[in-house]
Write a structure and sequence with these properties.
The chain is α+β, with helices and mostly antiparallel strands. It has helices at residues 24-28, 46-60, 68-81, 122-131, 154-165, 210-221, 233-237, 269-281; strands at residues 4-7, 10-13, 31-39, 42-43, 87-94, 112-119, 133-139, 170-174, 180-183, 187-191, 197-199, 226-228, 241-246, 250-257, 260-261. Helices cover 30% and strands 27% of the residues. It binds N-(5'-phosphopyridoxyl)-D-alanine (PDD).
């Protein structure tokens, strides 16, 4: 079956879909994006993802291309046309097309919207979660606003490749003070010896993950204790459990950091349980 992409109002064959060479996303990474999990053909936490998309757009003063209701229609249509049961839907909004000039175009231009969807290998993801994943640490090299979900991801790309080169799944950025900020495309968590869930407070240094937010709801429901504060790689190495969260990894146990096993070197029971129950509390629509 051939894939279909949505580009500025049209549903096109994925293989031949394209944007203009002077799209500011292409030239300046002047755009934002969201990734939403698709489960049983439905959108997971779409309302929160669209609220964050709007925030990112506002921070960059890019116009909203569609209302949330219209955008949800497009997301569902792209999911359906690609027959995605389990996977993800990707949406990207750039400032639009204009002759190359760093400053915003003098006259307002139409923002460019692209939506794609992709099926994922459920079995592969589950076996990953059963084994747990390795993380390595890398210096924080990103700009000062990782809270905006921009398509400017070069530092994240290099970090993820550094992880790959070392046989690891994810890289955790470590800031100048020696604290973990987040992963290349995930939020970072540990569980302390006394069972407290620790994740960095959501300031400008991290993306406030939607999975992170929904997991916090789940922790509250389960009566589990959350502390939003930074932690160091050394604290992670002696933690009871560690895990990462994102729309694509959900809750994924981490079994080593820089080669040091976490806990008994196997996925933690708390992270495993939260992964299994996550969708009870997420919005599925
Ligand atoms: N990444 N931190 C970063 C830097 C991210 O890129 C992401 C998401 C997250 C987790 O956010 P959420 O729970 O809302 O997915 C944290 C997406 C999945 C991506 O770039 O593919």
């Amino acid at each position: 079956m051939s894939r279909i992409a949505y580009v500025n109002g049209r549903y096109l064959p994925h293989a031949s879909a394209g944007v203009h060479i002077e799209d500011r996303g292409y030239q300046f990474a002047d755009g934002v994006y969201e990734v939403c999990e698709v489960r049983d053909g439905k959108l997971v936490d779409a309302t929160r993802h669209l609220a964050r998309l709007e925030r990112s757009l506002n921070e960059l003063r890019i116009a909203k291309p569609l209302s949330d209701a219209a955008l949800k229609v497009v997301l569902r249509e792209v999911v359906a046309r690609n027959r995605v049961e389990h996977g993800l839907v990707y949406m990207q909004v750039t400032r639009g097309v204009a002759p190359r000039d760093h400053a915003f175009p003098a006259k307002p231009i139409r923002p460019a919207l692209v939506v794609t969807a992709k099926s994922s290998h459920v079995q592969k993801a589950e076996s990953n979660a059963e084994k747990g994943v390795a993380v390595v640490t890398v210096p924080e090299t990103r700009w000062a606003r990782p809270d905006i979900k921009t398509v400017g991801l070069l530092a994240n790309v290099l970090a993820r490749q550094a992880a790959r080169d070392q046989g690891a799944y994810e890289a955790w950025f470590v800031d100048a003070e020696g604290y973990v900020t987040e992963g290349a495309s995930t939020n970072a968590w540990i569980v302390t010896g006394d069972g407290h869930f620790v994740t960095r407070h959501a300031d400008n240094a991290i993306l406030k993950g939607i999975t992170r937010t929904t997991l916090i709801d789940l922790l509250k429901r389960e009566g589990l204790k959350l502390i939003e504060r930074p932690f160091t790689p050394d604290e992670a190495k002696t933690a009871r459990e560690a895990f990462i969260t994102s729309a694509t990894s959900i809750v994924l146990p981490v079994v080593s950091v820089d080669g040091v096993p976490i806990g008994n070197g196997h996925p933690g029971s708390l992270a495993t349980k939260l992964r299994a129950t996550f969708h009870e509390i997420a919005e599925i629509s």
